[in-house]
Amino acid sequence: MLSIFSYLSAEVDWCEGNFERSTIIAEYYNTSCFWETRDRTTLFSLFLLIPLKLPGVGGCLHGEPFLSFRTLLTQSALFLAGVFSMYFHMTLSYVGQLLDELSILWTLAVAYSFWYPKVYFPRCIKNRKHFLWLSGVITVVSTLMSFIKPAFNAYVLNCIAFHLLYLTWRELKKCKDKRVHRMAAVMVMWWGLAITSWIADKWLCSLWQTINFPYFHSFWHVLIAISLLYCCPLVIYFNITYEMPSFKPKLEYWPSNSWPVVVPYVALEQPHKQC
Ligand SMILES: CCCCCCCC/C=C\CCCCCCCC(=O)N[C@@H](CO)[C@H](O)/C=C/CCCCCCCCCCCCC
Ligand SMILES: [Ca+2]
Ligand SMILES: [Zn+2]
């Protein structure tokens, strides 16, 4: 029982050398890149989930409180995924690996359950409550299956990004708003760089070790965090477009559209009733 918690008991070991900069942190850069970016991104994403309320601070969205339940749940799940990822790289333990993978799976489940536009529900699903049950069952079954071959899970999880890409592509075909096209293009660019770094670290490790630069997995952490920063407002934008069209969502950048470093968010054009 103890061995599944012990250092280096995981099925995978990333290219970065172990215990090179610390005696208690197995992969220093992979762990700290979480700390540098994931946590900040989590804070940023808090920013971009809240803007649902920004145009009329104190306003309410169909009776949702300032920080709605689905926002809080998505936010907490993202945060937990970050914490478990850090624990995994710090210990490279079997439990750490499973926590890292399962927290991503459950975060995706939460995001899909609460933000997936109804228009894309399978025909047999009549409402969000049924969809929630469906996602719950799929997630529980996937959780049980994930124990079969944990090293394979990360590949499956990465494939979910292709579904998000497919949905984005379907939406872009219908949408003429240049801001949406621009945000999707930027998201895809960062995701492309992220997945390239992930694959490069996994498949070409001996090459990076030869040139003494085994840091591509830490790049992945930074890059996937940035692509999520664009993915979240896009998903929220599509959700509101379908489910609350009267709020006229608009993609904006904080602090301003012209700044070189920006945080994208969703603004609601229409003033709405007070809570
Ligand atoms: C309203 C918001 C809706 C947003 C929907 C997106 C929900 C995102 C859900 C989970 C994201 C967590 C991803 C961070 C992963 C961090 C942990 C990590 O890096 N683990 C690795 C080992 O350390 C492991 O090998 C990685 C496994 C694969 C993770 C794949 C995650 C895919 C998430 C999709 C991101 C979409 C971005 C843009 C898509 C075009
Ligand atoms: Ca390593
Ligand atoms: Zn990682």
Automatic annotation (TrEMBL):
Zn(2+) binds at H89, H217, H221. InterPro entries: ACER (IPR008901). GO terms for biological process: ceramide catabolic process; sphingosine biosynthetic process. Its main location: membrane. Keywords: Calcium, Hydrolase, Lipid metabolism, Membrane, Metal-binding, Sphingolipid metabolism, Transmembrane, Transmembrane helix, Zinc. Pathway: Lipid metabolism; sphingolipid metabolism; Sphingolipid metabolism. It is a multi-pass membrane protein. GO terms for molecular function: metal ion binding; N-acylsphingosine amidohydrolase activity. Its EC number is 3.5.1.-. Ca(2+) binds at D13, W14, E16, N18, E27. Its cofactor is Zn(2+). It catalyses: an N-acylsphinganine + H2O = sphinganine + a fatty acid; N-(9Z-octadecenoyl)-sphing-4-enine + H2O = sphing-4-enine + (9Z)-octadecenoate; an N-acylsphing-4-enine + H2O = sphing-4-enine + a fatty acid. Hydrolyzes the sphingolipid ceramide into sphingosine and free fatty acid. Belongs to the alkaline ceramidase family. PANTHER family: ALKALINE CERAMIDASE, ALKALINE CERAMIDASE 1. This is Alkaline ceramidase.
